Amino acid sequence: MRRSIAGTNEDVGLYFVNTEDGSSAVVKPEKITRNTGSELICDIPELSSGTYEVSIKTQRSKTSPTKETLSSSFEKQFV
């Protein structure tokens, strides 16, 4: 997945969503140290053990800004 996080919509950010209970933690764009199409570096919020869906919500397509928020996600096990 090659996508940077950008935009002014309130829901833009990097999300960690617990697949068991639906709770989530978000890292807003201003808290991301490195934010390129191929690399995101940030402090991961404190999470309980479990399976999380990691979701990127952005207003940037591969080449240009968009009005609507785009989302990409994948599951990751945290222990």
Structural key phrases:
mainly beta, globular, four-stranded antiparallel β-sheet, single chain, 49% strand, 79 residues, 6 strands, two-stranded antiparallel ribbon
Radius of gyration: 12 Å
Low-confidence stretches: none
Widest β-sheet, arrangement of strands:
2-1-5-6
Structural class: mainly beta
How many strands appear in the DSSP assignment? 6
Average of per-residue pLDDT values: 87
Helix content: under 10%
Shape, please? Answer: globular
H/E order of the elements?
EEEEEE
The DSSP helix count reads 0
Task: Give the terminus-to-terminus CA distance.
Answer: 23 Å
Question: Could you characterize what this model shows?
Answer:
- This protein has strands spanning 13-18, 24-27, 34-35, 40-41, 50-60, 65-78.
- The chain has 79 residues and is an all-beta fold.
Task: Please describe the topology of this protein.
Elements: E1 13-18, E2 24-27, E3 34-35, E4 40-41, E5 50-60, E6 65-78
Antiparallel strand pairs: 1-2, 1-5, 3-4, 5-6
